[in-house]
Amino acid sequence: MNYWHASKSVLRRVSPLFDESRIECSGLCLDPASHRVMVQDKAVELGPTEFRLLHFFMTHRERVYSRSQLLDRVWGINIYIEERTVDVHIRRLRKALEPYTLETMVQTVRGAGYRFSSQP
After folding, report:
1. Is residue 3 part of a domain?
2. What is the CATH number of the domain that holds 56?
3. Where is pLDDT greater, at 9 or 83?
C-alpha cells in the first residue's frame, strides 16, 4: 500500500467528537450517551448521520452553516462525498421530525445553507 492510499484511509476515519451532555430544545431531547432522540417521551427514529447532524444543529443553534461547513463538522474533514449529500440528510432529518411538527426547526437559508432554530 502506498503512502497516499494509507493516509487517505486514516483521514477518512477522522470524525468530529461531541459532548455527551443531554440537549433539549422546544420539546426535542437528544441524549448522545444513549444515542436517543425523544419528543414528549416518544422515540424519534434517526439514522446515524441524521443523529450527528441533529446533534450538531442543536449544539449550534441560530447560526447558518453552508453545505461544505456541515460536511466538515458533521461528516468530518477530508471526506469524499458530494455537497448535495447534505441535502439528502437534511430531508431525512426533517421527515423524521415531521410527525412531531418540528421539521421547521431545520431551516433552509437561501443562498447560504442551513440553520437550526426554534423560531419560525
Report:
1. no
2. 1.10.10.10
3. 83
